[in-house]
UniProtKB/TrEMBL annotation:
Domain 18S rRNA (guanine(1575)-N(7))-methyltransferase Bud23 C-terminal: 118-206
Identification of the protein by name: 18S rRNA (guanine(1575)-N(7))-methyltransferase Bud23 C-terminal domain-containing protein
Record-level GO BP terms: rRNA (guanine-N7)-methylation
Source organism of the structure: Ceratopteris richardii (Triangle waterfern)
Keywords for the protein's UniProt record, in alphabetical order: Methyltransferase, S-adenosyl-L-methionine, Transferase
InterPro entries xrefs: Bud23-like, Bud23_C, SAM-dependent_MTases_sf
Pfam families: WBS_methylT (PF12589)
Keyword S-adenosyl-L-methionine: yes
Gene3D superfamilies cross-referenced by the UniProt entry: Vaccinia Virus protein VP39
Region feature Disordered, mapped onto this chain: 134-208
């Protein structure tokens, strides 16, 4: 494809690289990004050293850094199953993107297309997603045109960030629990069970 682009004297620079290893652009230099049928290949581990989740994380992190704030990225993907679609979408949201998934022709088997529409940064009033195409309808002149609809075809994904680990308070076993256990051991015939005193189950100080 790069050779064809050179023959056609395409404007712009051409780069041959692995997007799973990140994008080599300076931070905030891109005003937008387009990808067609490329992102789903990061889900395939064709080598033992390739981790799909890590490669997706590397790609989206570098894309987020390369885009200017408020810039958009339109990524057309062909996931093999719902698990791949969830993996790609989750990786994008965890890297700080907002946006959502647009599905064209959702009721068609062959014509169905998935578009991951991302926005660099948190969502705002001007970050509306494009409407998805449902199928062909006839207009007043009788010609067929694409019908657009934004119901049941656009899933808005909120920006997700790793939640902080919450401190889990350990349940302290108090005096009642200790007395209950000691009584159970006595009932089972244990002889060397310490006697109950006022110090039983009392919390000890951290230092003397």
């Amino acid at each position: 494809m790069l050779d064809v682009a050179l023959e056609r004297e395409t404007e712009g620079d051409l780069i041959l690289s692995d997007i799973g290893q990140g994008l080599g652009f300076r931070p905030g230099t891109l005003d937008g990004a387009i990808s067609i049928s490329a992102l789903q290949w990061l889900c395939n581990a064709d080598k033992s050293c390739n981790d799909p989740r890590q490669r997706l994380k590397t790609f989206f992190n570098s894309l987020y850094q390369s885009l200017s704030r408020g810039a958009r990225a339109a990524l057309q993907i062909y996931p093999q199953n719902a698990a791949q679609l969830e993996m790609i979408s989750t990786a994008a949201m965890r890297c700080g993107f907002s946006g959502g998934l647009v599905v064209d022709y959702p009721h068609s088997t062959r014509a169905k297309k998935y578009f991951l529409c991302l926005i660099c940064g948190p969502p705002n009033l001007n970050s509306a997603l494009p409407k998805a195409k449902l199928g062909m309808e006839s207009d007043e002149s009788g010609s067929e045109v694409d019908s657009d609809n934004d119901e049941h075809t656009v899933t808005v994904l909120e920006r997700q960030r790793p939640s902080k680990k919450r401190k889990v308070e350990k349940k302290v076993k108090g005096r009642a629990w200790v007395l209950k256990k000691k009584e159970q051991r006595r009932n089972h015939g244990f002889v060397n069970v310490p006697r109950d005193t006022k110090y039983t189950g009392r919390k000890r100080k951290a230092h003397f």
